Amino acid sequence: MKKIIAIMLIVSFCFTLFSCDNDTSKEPETTEKYVLPTPVISSDISLPYTSAADFNPYSTTASLNRDLIPVIFEPLFFATSDGKGEAVLATTSKIDDKTVTIKLKNDLKFSDGTELLASHVKKSFENAKASPYYSAQLSNVLDFVIIDNFTIRLSLYSVDLLINNALNFPIAKEKKGEYIGSGKYYVEYFNEKPYLEINKYHRDYSESLNQQIALYDMAGITGPVYPFKANEISVYKNDLSRAEYLNLSSETISVETDSLVYIGVNSHWAGSVTSIATIRQAINMGIDRTVISASSYLGQGSPTATPFKNDFYALDGVERVSLKGDIEKAVKLLEKDGFDKVNSDGIRGNGGINLNVSILVCTENQYKLTVAENFKTALEKLGFSVSINKKDTQEAFLLSLSEGYYSFYVGEVMLTPNCDLDSFFTEGGSFNYGVPADMFSIYSSYKNGEIEIAEFIKNFESYVPFIPLFYRKDVVSVNPNISGVGESYKMYSTVSDWKLNKAN
Asked: pTM of the entire structure?
């Protein structure tokens, strides 16, 4: 019999609003007076969720609940920063041009004890492709064929070196309108309140330390301060979408994301020196991305000099600019292009034109302003005169972008796990501001397998359509008395092994 905690705490107070910009992931609006719910089971580990949304793996809108999905449902592969993917339900993935053949593990079972087969994977694929969370990354899949109960074959529209990363959608079976997964835990209810129960059919069941995990309802709660400080929740994630980081604990971990922070470059405006290709090239090779990354977004970033993550396996052996930059080489390129004169203010010019540029930034998120300031410092080391054009609303920022009178802008985009760049390199792309039109056809050739990634990177560094800086991370505050919480792409990947170190 599960131990019930009967005492309910009733507290009335008001905290600073803690939310994020992405409307699809905002938690319910808060109230000043509310009942603090106590989890329905006694457990050393307690995770936040919201009762204002469900646990549907394909449509739930709450970020708290979405973080729990990989614990309940497993994918074919977990996405990894090197792009190879970590096999979960799959054993192998054979990629042959535009055809991908995947073998499933034998003896896989859902949490209700029934066998997991290729037919379940196909149905899950169809659900995922219709989902707003997975449709973009699966848009390159032309056809899905079941070969046998444990083998599937995908046909792609174009070659995708990161296809394994795209196959991180949850595999589930439907039963009476509900979804059942094969994860380490499943959602159980006591008095109509949820908690996580260990999945005894999971292949790693015998190694799990935590048989049950409590869920703490954050619906109606203004912020994480009280629940975390009162040990009602073991962890809390801050995605840094607003510059309102709350230092909840001395222990934090970083969780990788697919959010690329970059500098948009206006190659179209003749009134800016950024319309000159060699200027763009010099900047791209001269800035130190390790410094910019370390001093932006609380240092929660992994620097990259390409649109891809720096440890993407296909970049091995591909020549590209240094993450630390090469000021000497950049200056030589500027001088070769005639910008060999430096005035008393340290501004470089060619006798007629000085290197004067502007950076457009939306200050709704102050972390982006910090990025602009750090980029400004990097440009000044190359001899540029830099002004920052601050816009205090997203609407004003987008208006200035559309007008086109800027040199650079600070941008951030959440890419798909397989790093689809259509948003930058297509006519209708939502982030193609200032991008040279030639890059559209170059990227198309790369996607279609007509040129190798090395050729794409060579062209990218020649045109410099934008300047990648770093992939941002989320920050997770952890109860300092809990051990076993590791940094990962997967928020709760090791939750079955978390341990509360109790005082003697």
From this structure: 0.89
